[in-house]
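TA notes, week 10

Several of you asked for a full example with nothing omitted. So below is the full record: structure tokens for the whole chain, then the designed sequence directly under it. When grading your own attempts, check the secondary structure regions first.
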């Protein structure tokens, strides 16, 4: 849970390290399941979820937490999660979308080896 936005964040982080201009990045992810969101925010995974992660990426971005592994704050802090149901006309627009579009509230990969 949360693999997609965290994978994108790792990729962007790796690309930006090669750039001379420093950019501020924040990835905004949504889901309709509050329990999934809570789990994703912990950025903690069992070995089976990350066994295909390239070792150099694993070593750089994960730390052991007993029998699980947690992403470093460097990556974890760049991802924001929010509830949003695109099919519910009464669901409020997520905060990041409102900020990006300027619109008012109204009634976004997986871990794996890079090629």
């Amino acid at each position: 849970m949360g693999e997609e936005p965290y994978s994108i964040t790792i990729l962007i982080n790796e690309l930006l390290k090669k750039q001379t201009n420093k950019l501020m990045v924040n990835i905004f992810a949504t889901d309709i399941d509050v329990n999934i969101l809570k789990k994703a925010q912990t950025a903690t995974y069992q070995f089976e979820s990350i066994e295909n992660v390239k070792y150099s990426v694993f070593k750089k971005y994960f730390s052991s937490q007993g029998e699980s592994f947690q992403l470093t704050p460097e990556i974890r802090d760049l991802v924001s999660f929010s509830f949003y149901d695109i099919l519910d006309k009464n669901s409020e627009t997520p905060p990041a979308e409102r900020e990006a579009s300027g619109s008012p509230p109204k009634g976004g990969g997986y871990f794996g080896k890079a090629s």
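The mean pLDDT is 84. Use that as a sanity check on your answer.
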